[in-house]
Amino acid sequence: MQVEENFLLQNLNTFGIAAQAKYFSAFRSASELEILLEELPETDPKLILGGGSNILFTKNFNGAVLKNEIQDITILDENQDYVYVQAGAGVSWHSFVMYCVENNWGGLENLSLIPGNVGASPMQNIGAYGVEIKDVFESLEAFHLKEKTIVNFNNADCEFGYRESIFKKSLKNQFAILNVRFKLCKRPVFNIQYGAIESELEKMKVNQLSVKAVSDAVIKIRQSKLPDPALLGNAGSFFKNPVINQNAFVELNRQISKNKKIDESTDLPFYKISNEQYKIPAGWLIEQCGFKGKRLGNVGCYEKQALVIVNYGGATGADVYNFSKTIIDKVQAEFGIVLEREVNVF
Ligand code: FAD
Ligand code: NAP
Fold it and tell me: Is the CB–ligand 1 distance for residue 122 below 6 Å?
């Protein structure tokens, strides 16, 4: 394992930001990580990197960026109904999903084509089309960067929430996730009510639902709606969808119907997630503020989904961050809602 100095990270983050790391290296096991940590200055900050698809570097990283390349996939146990599979943190997420789809194991098909690696999937409890990894997550092993011990986390330990986990909150930047274990279903129950999956399956003329058919439908929808980071730098949804309570929801509806700047026939879209809580699509709020497809210098909001901020080429991390701040301020002024960034900002 070589430690490189002043290493350019541009090809290792899907925004394509040309930030540098003071030190950079990669590891393929917990023991390699331990050796690296002994070599590197103890007081320098450490950043564990996966596929770089949920990161924004706003400046050079004044410490060590360590890329997790732990690769194995192992079947741990199985019975008539379930299979328990462990995947190394460095395995590409989509190739792991494809491995499960090929084996006809259900649970991850709605999460097809999400960029990044397995190790980052618990970080924000990745989710799409009504499924989150917490639904099939068994446990993970993680290496404590300071204490140099391996700790096991079960589902409850991870404190999963909406695009959240303990690793983004109280344990932020403390652990390197080494591997993740999933409980997948040999008799899958499909979740196709969400978004355009059902209509895509109809278009595909699927009569018999299968893990593969649902995965194919999700892949088709995603390819038609989302920018390919290889062609246009981005990190997926830049903001989380805000969740507001009943009073705020009533007030927001009242305000929208009063607001002259907004087309009065436009209704506030929402998803009721409990008796008291409503999820509002952040993309809609941003679109209403006029940002959809809008470009400012080298940065802009994607033309098909305002929630995705794109780098048209040559943008700095600060350009992207400042653009996101402009959006936050405008949405707050217009709707009184403060959008929260989903992307990890360094
Ligand atoms: P990175 O960007 O490398 O890292 C993200 C964070 O996790 C960083 O803080 C990093 O330090 C930390 N981290 C990474 N690996 C480890 C590890 N092994 N141990 C400890 N910490 C670690 N997300 C969704 O939830 N749903 C989607 O549908 C979705 N669609 C996307 C579509 C596009 C086009 C893009 C570009 C992104 C999308 N994302 C989506 C966001 C992103 O792909 C996921 O969050 C993904 O899990 C990030 O994985 P990564 O390996 O690239 O993480
Ligand atoms: P979409 O289908 O146009 O829907 C817009 C928003 O409405 C989504 O954010 C979604 O919330 C919400 N929504 C739609 N149907 C819903 C339902 N039946 N119940 C509850 N909420 C519903 O969204 P999209 O942009 O094309 O994305 C499709 C899926 O991929 C979404 O689940 C989205 O989260 C995921 N995705 C995530 C990222 C990322 O970087 N995090 C990037 C691209 C796509 P949720 O986001 O809470 O699901």
Answer: no
Contact in structure between 316 and 27 (CB atoms under 8 Å): no
Q: Indicate which residue of 69, 163, 200, 324 is catalytic.
A: 163
Question: What does DSSP assign to residue 256?
Answer: H
Sign of CA dihedral 141, 146, 148, 149: negative
Q: Work out the average pLDDT over 139-144.
A: 98
Closest residue (by CA) to atom 29 of ligand 1?
114
What the block records as the tokens of 333 is: 């002024």
Give me ligand 2 centre to Cα 129, in Å: 6
Q: Which two tokens stand for residue 145?
A: 């960067």
Give the pair of three-digit tokens for residue 278.
Answer: 């409503």
Query: 200: how many CB neighbours lie within 10 A of its CB?
Result: 20
Distance, in Å, from the CA atom of 287 to the CA atom of 303, rounded to the nearest integer, reads 10
List pLDDT tens digits, range 68-95.
Answer: 999 999 999 999 999 999 999 999 999 9
Active-site residue flag, 163: yes
Distance CA 306, CA 287 (A): 6
Q: Are 317 and 17 in contact (CB under 8 A)?
A: yes
> Does any ligand 2 atom lie closer than 6 A to the CB of residue 129?
yes
Protein residue whose Cα sits closest to atom 10 of ligand 2:
281
What is the Å distance from ligand 2's center to 128 Cα? 6
Q: What is the DSSP letter of 327?
A: H
Strands of the 243-245 sheet, one edge to the other: 243-245, 277-279, 271-272
Q: What is the pLDDT of residues 271-304, one digit of tens each?
A: 999 989 999 999 999 999 999 999 999 999 999 9
Would residue 237 show up in a list of annotated catalytic residues for this protein? yes
Cβ contact 65:56 at 8 Å: no
Cβ atoms of 84 and 75 within 8 Å: the answer is: yes
Question: Within 10 A of 121 (CB to CB), how many other CB atoms are there?
Answer: 27
